[in-house]
Amino acid sequence: KPYIPKIVEVNYIEGSHDQKWSSRDFPWTIKLEANNKKVFGNHSFRPNQREIINATMSGCDVFVLMPTGGGKSLTYQLPALICPGITLVISPLVSLIQDQIMHLLQANIPAAYLSANMDWPEQQEILRELTSDYCKYKLLYVTPEKVARSDVLLRHLDSLNTRDLLARIVIDEAHCVSQWGHDFRPDYQGLGILKQKYPKTPVLALTATATASVKEDVVQALGLVNCIIFRQSFNRPNLWFSVIPKTKKCVEDIDKFIKENHFDECGIIYCLSRMDCEKVAEKLQEYGHKAAFYHGNMDPAQRASTQKQWSKDEINIICATVAFGMGINKLDVRFVIHHSLPKSIEGYHQECGRAGRDGQRSSCILYYSYSDYIRVKHMISQGVVEQSPSVSGYNRFNNSGRILETNTENLYRMVSYCENDVDCRRFLQLLHFGEKFDSANCQKTCDNCCTVNSFVEKDITNIAKQLVELVKSTGQQYSSSHILEVYRGSLSQFVKRHRHETLSLHGAGKHLAKGEASRVLHHLVTEEFLVEEVKKSDIYGSVSSVLKVNESKVQNLCLGGHTITLRFPSSAKATKLSKSGATPAKGSLTSGRLSPPRVDTPAQSNSNVDLNLSAK
Ligand code: ADP
Ligand code: MG
Ligand code: ZN
């Protein structure tokens, strides 16, 4: 029976700006600081840790957005230690849980976990302990399945609750709640039952992934009330980003890159399929690297042993599917290479986030080709893409049209990231997380900031007007990728089904390269002419993103009282391209850059037509 969450009014408070949570005058401050030093061996708190702890210990529901490695665990383990009662922690993976418990026991903090694949007597012993008034455990870890499937567990939680011993409920990796995130896991959606049953127990939800829509989804599904949100910048200054055109010689390029930049250092190469992992690993071995592969088709012992060898530096390079990585605790990963296109920007950001956790400079290289886009798209539609292990059971749901649509939209955004050869990579990634990043702060640590030296301002007012008009005339109910398709004259099935090919603006932007059109559209969103609205599509509170027009801002534009300009690169390559008038072949290099391939549309164009003149 599916659990249907109640729709609740949610007030967000951005806690990160509220000074009161930084106070050192809470009744628990002294104990907090002492235990942070004595038990956890930390000299101080990291950004937001003190604030989060103060908010959750004050009894508020708290939602934490903190990058991987930021130190989320401490924000519940420390309160668990100094509060009476037990903290319930929901975590997606048994291997993650075991790792955490090992660390807790080493620090002499009593903790246990329950999972379905444990012996029953062992489970019973832990449950028995929970019924004791002198229960020794400070933390109890469970998987979401356990909450969804085990009445015995719920009865024990009831009992703890009536005895006022249920101190706090922690939802780790909370983005798994959301179908909009990259790690959707159905059992997480049922966790809303906890807030319903135990409304007085504070909930602490933690994630390193949150777009506005994921945040919305999580808060909704968990039923958080007057939730305080702590977010901090997701920028990782020590990671260097680039996107490189993928050729047939990709593995040779990787070999060369590693030898020149990270010889004998440790890294991860993400591949799309299991076969790719094995092939890439084999080739790298031939080139003399200590490489191994890792994917979901290996038996668990083999996987564990490979991971261990890598942790101990017996292997430098691991060629893996996204099954590898969640919860790995290696600090000196010097490079993360994507051998093929990641499936979403969130996923990409998280995978890259495994590099450089010690703060040292590290490289994130993505090899992009248009044919990989087609391949991933096909795999998504067939439901055969390997997911990170938090989403076992995912494929059962994969045939649902809505999830397919979400996945396709996520992939589409990833493609547009790769094809953008103008804007700062950090700016683009962080924009996706709702964070405005000033490209000047990149300090030339991404490929685009390094190669694009000079810009020309171009007038895009006409294009802007057309796009706004198109959003209006299609009823403000489509995603940005769909609007772009129509604007550039796509004749896809979806466009036809909605009879968009009959619109006068269908194809009005066919003279624009895809990357250009999508940059203009993005710009309209960041300048708030258009709003990307999160739409709840059904009772489960699942969401999709839809473009709407911001009337007040647009009025001025349509009356002609406003010009919009956007920077375009005025590099040597641009002039060369427009002079020759030729459409470069897919994947060809121009001044070391990838020419933007065309996606899903018959519209062919030179990429540097004068925007202002050619717009109608
Ligand atoms: P996250 O869950 O946010 O990815 P973790 O909680 O696993 O991060 O913490 C990452 C690492 O940072 C751990 O090794 C942890 O011991 C360390 N750490 C956390 N807080 C502090 C602190 N205040 N001072 C020093 N190290 C810390
Ligand atoms: Mg964590
Ligand atoms: Zn940059």
Automatic annotation (TrEMBL):
GO molecular function terms noted in the UniProt entry: 3'-5' DNA helicase activity; ATP binding; ATP hydrolysis activity; DNA binding; four-way junction helicase activity
Ranges for domain Helicase C-terminal: 253-412
Span of domain Helicase ATP-binding: 53-228
Renumbered residue ranges of the record's region Disordered: 575-606
Domain Rhodanese, chain residue ranges per copy: 268-310
Record-level GO BP terms: cellular response to cold; DNA replication; double-strand break repair via homologous recombination
Keyword Iron: no
Any single Gene Ontology cellular-component annotation: chromosome
Compartments where found: Nucleus
Keyword Isomerase (UniProt): yes
Reactions accelerated catalytically: ATP + H2O = ADP + phosphate + H(+); Couples ATP hydrolysis with the unwinding of duplex DNA by translocating in the 3'-5' direction
Major location (coarse): nucleus
UniProt-listed Enzyme Commission number(s): 5.6.2.4
Keywords in alphabetical order: ATP-binding, Coiled coil, DNA-binding, Helicase, Hydrolase, Isomerase, Nucleotide-binding, Nucleus
Transmembrane segment boundaries: none
Family: Belongs to the helicase family. RecQ subfamily.
This protein's name: ATP-dependent DNA helicase
Organism: Corchorus capsularis (Jute)
Location of this fragment in the whole protein: 263 to 878 of 999
